[in-house]
Design brief:
heterodimer; A: about 190 residues; alpha+beta; Nuclear Transport Factor 2, Chain: A; 6 strands; globular; B: about 450 residues; Rieske Iron-sulfur Protein; 2 domains; 8-stranded antiparallel beta sheet; 20 strands; binds FE2/S2 (inorganic) cluster; binds fe (ii) ion
Chain lengths: ~190, ~450
């Protein structure tokens, strides 16, 4: 798990300079995210797993209704402590894919129809620098639409912070934090990926 | 006035002798309203855990039936539960989930209530109320009775309800297995997190699932095939370790409507390999097992699996471990709350591993329970039709295959997979819907007891 502060909780105040290199990298990142969304929406789950770094952390906190002034401290459950919606590694994500591919995971059999919409992409940090990016932290918004069987429809909307890493094998997702804008989950299941 | 459904005789909808139960009780809006009135305002309901409110002024916003309730430890350390609705115009007084406060201030006209629920401040009390508003009569509505049992908090709106332990009856020793420390010490659990989610199903499907519906095992085939248990990385299939491998499984229906699936280990009960993926955990649970055996002796042979305390509290006793409240929203919608439990003094590595296991197993993101939710949803929605409602559900499994010759277990015991527990549960549900007295609700009167035989 990264020791970095959660970008989603403490947004960067200083923007990266908006220059040609930034926009080139942003276009690359957007392409990568769209291609990733395609894999999920086309149900190419094994290919999707290949986009995940072996040390990925995949985290979706539970959001709580807290008093004004306590948001930073208490609004979201914490990665690495207690219970969240997801606090996963590659092993469990692989299990989730394996389960769908058994063909008898009834919550996803028949498969849901899912569309991932990604927007508001901003790069928040690049190491070592924007001209020679090895790790890119970015923020975006997501809208995940799920329809299953006939009448079941769920809309999941929120913010995401990703850490994308350059490897010999292309870009990989090394960290993902998913802030779903719901308190009580308004869905029977979270059987899709974010 | 009491809520009354359009059915002249609700009892006719539930035939536990022949084993048929009308679908109406799972889908009909009138019966649902009647249920809220006759079941949820009388039965003892699970509302939280002391570890959520350890200090004076701590509160946790909970639910009873459809209604929001504030669970609060007052300044003096006494635990209370109140309806979360202002006595003036009904505003939800507390919209935070959890916290610490010295006073609850109603957002609407600023009446304030102390942590023991008493009305304290009324703006312009002298000029607008002549200084004589009855504060006691306008305090937050308190539950009639509240009980704390091994950390868990329970409440009822019925002043005439028996004490909680009487209500629990012989199901106590089974619930204990979920609440006691893994090494056999009493109590000692803490809640490490709570899932809350809404699913389109009747609440009784969830309650019944945990009564010991072992028969639905095939619906978890996907997760059993891939293996997600604490020994999965070591090559074991299944969704949990098979701790009960050598045990005699028992399914028990209690006269109060509760039901459990537990197991009795052989006399020379030996630790079954588990938690193989983590040497620290393997060692820890082996130690707990031996310690429990030493501490409890013969009684250590009893191991928990699952159970439901009538009407809507369920537990998972070991892998994973937690308590659920199934809160009704409508005949076809339910809000599930799962409270995840660990021993408060378990080592850090143990707690960390367990929380990860709980998350991949349980609730809406849990690989096992997603399939349960799918079943509950479509069993509900495929039962609302006019024609569907004419055909009752079948509850004939293992009719008559039970015994009361088990001095230590209590209740009606089956040693094969059975719907006897469900029949017992709905038999009691019928007593509540008929407005029965507490003798009948506890299964103490001759009539309902005979009906079981
Ligand atoms: S509704 Fe609470 S003060 Fe008026
Ligand atoms: Fe199940």
């Amino acid at each position: 798990m990264s020791a970095e502060p959660l970008a989603a909780e403490a947004p960067q105040k200083t923007l990266l300079p908006r220059n040609d290199a930034y926009y080139r990298l942003k276009a690359d990142m957007e392409d990568f995210l769209y291609a990733e969304a395609d894999l999920l929406d086309e149900r190419r789950f094994r290919d999707w797993l290949n986009l995940l770094a072996d040390d990925i952390t995949y985290f979706m906190p539970i959001r709580r209704n807290v008093k004004f002034g306590q948001h930073t401290e208490r609004e979201n459950t914490r990665q690495g402590a207690g219970i969240s919606w997801f606090d996963e590694d590659k092993w469990t994500l692989t299990k989730r894919v394996d389960q769908i591919l058994t063909g008898v995971h009834y919550a996803e059999e028949p498969l849901s129809r899912v569309t991932h919409m990604i927007s508001n992409v901003q790069i928040t940090r690049v190491t070592p620098d924007v001209n020679e990016p090895r790790e890119v932290e970015l923020r975006c918004r997501f809208l995940v639409y799920q329809n299953r069987i006939e009448y079941e429809t769920y809309t999941f909307v929120g913010k995401r912070t990703d850490l994308i890493r350059k490897t010999a094998d292309g870009w990989k997702i090394a960290r993902r934090e998913i802030l779903l804008d719901q308190n009580v989950l308004l869905a029977k299941n979270l059987s899709t990926f974010f | 006035m009491a809520v009354k459904s359009r059915f002249d005789d609700v009892a006719k909808l539930v035939d536990t002798e022949q084993g048929f139960i009308s679908r109406e009780i799972f889908v009909d809006p009138d019966l649902y309203r009647e249920e809220l009135d006759k079941v949820f305002t009388r039965a003892w309901l699970f509302i939280g855990h002391e570890s959520l409110i350890p200090n004076p002024g701590d509160f946790y916003t909970t639910r009873m039936g459809e209604e929001s309730v504030i669970l609060c430890r007052d300044k003096a350390g006494i635990v209370h539960a109140f309806l979360n609705s202002c006595r003036h115009r009904g505003m939800k007084v507390c919209r935070y989930e959890q916290g610490n406060t010295s006073i609850f201030t109603c957002p609407y006209h600023s009446w304030t209530y102390t942590t023991d629920g008493k009305l304290q401040g009324v703006p312009q009390y002298r000029s607008l109320y002549d200084g004589n508003l009855d504060r006691d009569a306008n305090s937050l509505v308190s539950v009639a009775k509240l009980a704390i049992y091994k950390g868990t908090v329970w409440a009822t709106w019925d002043r005439n309800a028996p004490e909680f332990l009487t209500y629990l009856g012989d199901a106590k020793i089974h619930l204990d297995q979920a609440l006691d420390c893994r090494d056999g010490r009493e109590g000692g659990s803490e809640v490490i997190g709570v899932h809350k989610w809404v699913f389109p199903s009747n609440w009784k499907f969830a309650a019944e699932n945990f009564l010991g519906d072992t028969y639905h095992n095939p619906s978890h085939r996907s997760v059993d095939l891939i293996g997600i248990g604490p020994s999965a990385a070591s090559g074991k299939k299944g969704r949990r370790d098979n701790e009960l491998e050598h045990a005699q499984h028992v399914w028990i229906s209690f006269p109060e409507g509760h039901g459990v699936h537990s197991a009795i280990q052989p006399e020379n009960n030996e630790y079954v390999d588990s938690f193989l993926d983590q040497p620290v955990l393997e060692k820890y649970f082996r130690h707990c097992y031996e310690e429990r055996k030493r501490r409890l002796g013969e009684q250590a042979r009893l191991m928990p699996f699952v159970g439901t305390i009538f009407p809507n509290t369920s537990y998972h006793g070991r892998q994973p471990r937690g308590l659920c409240a199934w809160h009704p929203h409508s005949p076809t919608s339910t809000e599930g709350w799962r409270f995840f439990l660990v021993d408060a003094d378990a080592p850090k590595e143990v707690k960390d591993y367990l929380r990860r296991y709980y998350m991949r197993y349980s609730g809406p993101a849990g690989m096992t329970e997603q399939d349960d939710m799918e079943n509950w949803l479509y069993a509900t929605s495929a039962s609302v039709g006019t024609v569907a409602r004419r055909y009752p559900f079948n509850y004939q499994q293992s009719l008559g295959a039970w015994t009361r010759e088990h001095a230590t277990l209590g209740g009606t015991v089956s040693v094969q997979v059975t719907e006897e527990i469900a029949r017992g549960y709905y038999r009691r549900w019928k007593s509540y819907m008929g407005g029965g007295g507490w003798d009948e609700l506890l299964g103490k009167d001759g009539v309902t007891q005979r009906a079981a035989e």
